[in-house]
Amino acid sequence: MNATNERTIFDIKLDNGIDILIKNGCIIDGTGNPSYHADISIIKDKIVLVTKDSHYINAARVIDATDKIVCPGFIDAHSHTDSTIFLNPTAESTVRQGITTEIVGHCGMSVAPITEEAKSKGSGGFGSFKGVDIPPCSFGQFLELMEKMGTSINIAWLLGHNTVRSVAGVSGSTVSLEQYKKMEVVVQEAMEAGAIGFSTGLEFEPGRSATMEEIIRLTKVMGKYGGIYTSHIRNRDFLIQDAIEEFIEVVRGCDVKGQVSHLNIRHNTGAPEGAWQKAVMTIEAARAEGLDILTDFTPLRYGIGQMSAILPKWLRKNGTLEASKMLLDHSVRSRLRADCDRYWRFIHRGEWDRVRMQSNPAYPELNGKTFIQISQNWNRDPWDCYFDILAAAGSEMDSIVLVALLFTEEHCREGISHPLFMLNVDGYSTRIDGPLAEQTRYPLHYMGMVHFLTYHVREKKTLRLEEAIRKMTSMPANPGY
Ligand SMILES: [Zn+2]
Fold first, then answer.
1. Among 27, 215, 441, 467, which one has the highest count of C-beta atoms within 10 angstroms of its own C-beta?
2. Portion of the chain with pLDDT greater than 70, in percent
3. What pLDDT, on the 0 to 100 scale, is given for residue 22?
């Protein structure tokens, strides 16, 4: 018994037995160090001992992990699950990928806070899903609602800049002192309520009209609470370098930690040769200067995106409902064909086979179809199909989500294997039944993390398994969060 008494960790004695013993597993601890075989003792929710010799330990429950890997739960540090969690608190599509924690509210879009007016203009998370009906609430009230509901996964919440602008009634680049005051109060309230940081989505309205001065001003308020600044940066094609430098200036100017969201370049959208490498080197130089900046990559060559994001500001200046009416006008459509060269710029280049409908409850027959197929089905030009679908959505046009073939295989490889890139899904938790099933038909939401492991690690050998797990666990757990 004396020998047993000596085997303690965290001052917990094992004499009285433990709750769970995970035996014979191959442990990958998330540090990137090589795997090893050992047994794990757990009391309540704490690992109390990792040992190669557990024969003396008396456990209430023994889990045999022979031929299995035992590792920390994955952290998806770029998720939009705040949009769907109300309809899906068990989040099985997420849990079954091994994800136990999600960081949500990215790309400038958080579901809270929300006002009746902002709601009517389509503000909210990434995609407004039918069946999700969040009452007008502050960020703090929203977190209380979540607490009451309970979720199977741990969720950490970012405040979205687009959401802040929407509730403060700000659009365009000019912001009055009163509007600044309103936005600063929203940021302060959210941080005091428990937000972990502030996200921008500078390719989307209304955030894309914001000046750097505005972003710095709001990020400084957030920074007082020690949060992180994450950004879907302004441009990732011919102006990517400017966008990265803007990001770094915000992080430096506000003295905060930063995460460049999904730093990738969409194939054939005008980025100069070597632009991605230069952007990554710029981040490395900023880190060498002492700034705490990381970035992330998604698992598939495909990605999800907002259908309305290619529209120019002039169309949206009176809101989405007005824009949807203007879309019915043929002269407006002709102008748009020339003036939609932004965001997924391959659409403007006529590469319609790269773009497909994720799912659209208004046209369920189009789910998963490319715009070439939609054009054939409707016997209309792809541009007209695109505008018809947006026009039909009215004020909810920002909620339509597309899927596109974005990256080359080689680009995925260079991003996923780079040491500064975390591995994230960039999707949202969903279900195979109920209202969400009709609106989120895309495999990514079920298999993002698994794909990193089965395809990029096992099949393509792009990176070691231990390194992939580091990028899904300790990397998002420590710096910046
Ligand atoms: Zn994004």
1. 215
2. 94
3. 97
Long-range contacts, 409-414 (Cβ 8 Å, 24+): 409/301, 411/264, 411/265, 411/267, 411/276, 412/297, 412/299, 412/300, 412/301, 412/456, 413/456, 413/460, 413/462, 414/276
Average pLDDT of span 210-229: 97
180 near 212, Cβ under 8 Å?
no
18-27 and 59-64: which strand pairing? parallel
Please tell me the distance between residue 260's alpha carbon and the centre of ligand 1 in angstroms. Answer: 10
Domains in the chain: ranges and CATH: 2-70 (2.30.40.10), 74-301+407-477 (3.20.20.140), 306-405 (no CATH)
Mean pLDDT of 67-72: 97
Pairing relationship of beta strands 228-232 and 197-201 according to DSSP bridges: parallel
CA of 422 to the centre of ligand 1 (A): 14
The residue-averaged pLDDT of 224-237 equals 97
* Cβ atoms of 295 and 420 closer than 8 Å: yes
- Cα 378 to averaged position of ligand 1 atoms, centre (Å): 31
Residue 3 has pLDDT above 80, yes or no: no
Digit-coded pLDDT (tens) for 161-185: 999 999 999 988 999 999 999 999 9
Interval between CA 108 and ligand 1 midpoint (Å): 8
Query: From ligand 1's centre to the CA of 12, what distance in Å?
Result: 44
Ligand 1: centre distance to CA 80 (Å): 9
Q: Are 102 and 197 in contact (CB under 8 A)?
A: no
**Ligand 1 centroid distance, CA of 229 (Å):** 13
